[in-house]
């Protein structure tokens, strides 16, 4: 099937090559836990992480945005100017003691123990060749006595060194899997309250982003966490680790343009830097879950073999830090004295927040209808692709509304997009609508449905309960990047993006999603009938109820 190359419909963050992934494989063994929602927390005696100590060391009332000073408790969280940040209170840190759950070694790709030859084909580049063979560009250049990585030609024969010759990375576990996602362990966490308490540069930070909005540091962290479904606690640790902005003014040498250290002119400012970080943390997790890599290539071109006994959350951190740091610095950052120590200094032991299992072994999708009104005929324009950004599993599908021959690109549609099931709207704004199917008021627990590119006019507000078939809004180009009027729909469970073509396939009104192995390419199948995804209107991609 021919399909046009398309940018992600939901975000401007695109870096590197994304591999097709799926979640739910290799679930961790639950050792000991307390019942909580649909999963478990490891036991922590009399510990409430959202409380601060009072004078007699007993837990005081929780600090949240509801109890902040009036000047800070506004929708914009207007920062109060300061010269030297002075922490207002100290968070009660999670206790020492909880240890990582043991997990079986991952079945990583087998590494070559000997050199091999590779013949360059048209369209090749050294970065792709290096990634395919689990070595670095620098290693290929050295063994072939090449100076310029761009000067390779078709039919050129390259010697590829053995991947197994690289140093084995640490087996130290940095964070549990549940710390990567904005999931059940984050219920009750108040981003604004925590940032206010530390009173560092992040509290006073403001930035105007590309869509014209002016966001505070708090709003940036919250929006990135919401969009990517990445744990804001981990994002705050990353900010402190890289810039020092959470607890103080700034670390020496930190740039206002590149506070996380990713020096790319397309990613200036905290908003884009943090979005890039969230995307790459997610990518590291999905690469590991998909058992797609056996080595990390670091920022200086050095390569290290991944220890197969680490967990997916640790893999996310190791991969992300490898994009920023050379080998000597990376080895420190992924050890006990690195990001783990930063986490401990802010929140305490990360494994005290472990929530297992994130995805139950018997997870099943509830019955969902097509998000289209009866009688309307839409075009299935996007098969399985990223839930958000380019790092997540392929959780999403795209649909475009009917229109005339003149209705191409971004046009106004009045064809309704409807609720796939009963639920509660827990978030609505900037093109996004989130439907909570368990109606507990949190998008971090249970099944949630993300609709994206929903027009502001007549978009359903947050807080409203809906029945299956009720109006969500109308498709548009609003929110993120879009090449034409459509809506994007994706599923999450406990904050984890669920692959549309994975072990728990996306089923809408009996139509089962499948992938052809290439992003956006796929089918919907029902009762022997197949509809093919295609970026346009054609007889073979029309669908209705």
Can you characterise this structure?
The chain has 545 residues and is of the alpha+beta class. It folds into three domains: 256 residues, no CATH class; 46 residues, Membrane-bound Lytic Murein Transglycosylase D, Chain A (Roll); 168 residues, Glucose Permease (Domain IIA) (Distorted Sandwich). Helix content is 18%, strand content 18%. Strands 11, 12, 14, 15, 16, 17, 19, 20 and 25 form a nine-stranded antiparallel sheet that branches. A four-stranded antiparallel sheet has the order 21-22-23-24, with no helix packed on it. The N terminus is likely disordered.
For the largest beta-sheet, the strand count, sense and barrel status come to: 9 strands, antiparallel
User: How much of the residues is beta strand, in percent?
Assistant: 15-25%
Helices, by number, come to: 10
Oligomerization state? single chain
Broad structural category: alpha+beta
Large-scale geometry: globular
Taking pLDDT < 50 over at least 5 consecutive residues as the criterion, the unreliable ranges are 1-64, 66-83
Summary tags:
single chain; 545 residues; alpha+beta; Membrane-bound Lytic Murein Transglycosylase D, Chain A; Glucose Permease (Domain IIA); 9-stranded antiparallel β-sheet
